Amino acid sequence: MKTTLGWAVILIVSLAAQAVLLPLVFTKGVKPDILLIIIVAAGLLAGRERAIGVAFFAGLMQDFASGNVFGLNTLSKMAVGYAAGLAERKVFKESILLPVLATIIATFFNSAIMQALLFLLGYKIEPGSMMLNQVLPSLGYNILFCIPIHRLIYRMTFGNRSQF
Which of 31, 35, 37, 45 is nearest to 2 (CA)? Predict the structure, then answer.
């Protein structure tokens, strides 16, 4: 799964699931950010170059699909991918805590970047309300999905080299 085509398939399927299926399952507009979890896994497992590329296309597709401020998801996801990619050589990739901790940090980091960008663009931001109503519930869902997605990306990147 080291090919660009393989990553494109993962991103397109994930975006379709996130945009079409997840809103049917999760209520009040709060759902896991599958693309963010994939970007974190790509950064931790494949390095920052791969993570930035995956993040660029994931954010771009999410911007096209969402109808929000164009470029907001692309910039925030690229920053998250770069940060996750910096840790690639410094972490034990088979650790079960790695995807959980990285997803927690990435969810808050992504939210902070998006709020800062919206503020700079002149939008009224209420960080406390957004944190309680969107970020924390989304964080819970992200934690539920991060381990299976991390394992999937691990197997696609490295094959079956370990017992992970």
Answer: 45
The model's pTM is: 0.92
Per the CB < 8 A criterion, the answer to whether 63 and 71 are in contact is yes
Contact 33, 142 (CB under 8 A): yes
* Side-chain-side CA neighbours of residue 63 (13 Å): 17
What are the boundaries of each domain within the chain?
Answer: 4-158
Annotation: CATH topology of 4-158: Arp2/3 complex 21 kDa subunit ARPC3 (1.10.1760)
pLDDT digits (tens, 9 = 90+) for 66-101: 888 999 999 999 999 999 999 988 888 888 899 999
pLDDT in tens, 27-42: 777 899 999 999 999 9
- Through-space distance between the first and last CA atoms of the chain, rounded to whole angstroms: 17
What phi-psi label fits residue 130: left (phi over 0), alpha (psi between -120 and 50 degrees) or beta? alpha
Q: How far apart are CA 162 and CA 18, in angstroms?
A: 30
Residue 143 has pLDDT above 60, yes or no: yes
CA distance 109 to 4: 26
